[in-house]
Amino acid sequence: MIICPDCKAENISGAELCESCGQDLRNLALPKAETEFEEHLMTDRLGGIGAEEALSVAPGDPVTVAVHFMRQHGAECVLVTDGDGIQGILTERDVLMKAAGDKIDLSALAAKDIMTRDPVILREEDTLAVALHKMSIGGFRHLPFVAKGRKTLLVSIQDVFRHVCSYIRSGR
Fold this sequence. Notes:
20% strand, 6 helices, 10 strands, CBS-domain, 172 residues
């Protein structure tokens, strides 16, 4: 952990800016990894974990279209995009918690009505520790990130754990 010198908030090692006050943390001394697992969290980049290209729907598409698209592709979420880029992310949980109910017609409800607006977007060179920190702080299970060629990929908490599970040593 890095303690922000301005507001004293705890930030994950490798964070560039303080989550609390926005202070630049890049010039602070970073702690050294003590285990192979910590080393991989601090040095492995999102671009190296084999994330899938993100699926997308338009903001005005009915929720039923997004659900069908997710089901058809075995995805847990889709990005909501228009000509200006990523407007939001629509997850299975958004559908269950914000739209599913007795009197709600999912075909009359647009993706933009229940999506999570302005999602955190990471970069291909961000570390796994940064991704886990953003997921933890925001309560997210999926985050988009921009890869080479401006292609948007989607990383999930499952992707991160699959990547690092071989580096976790048992307590035996």
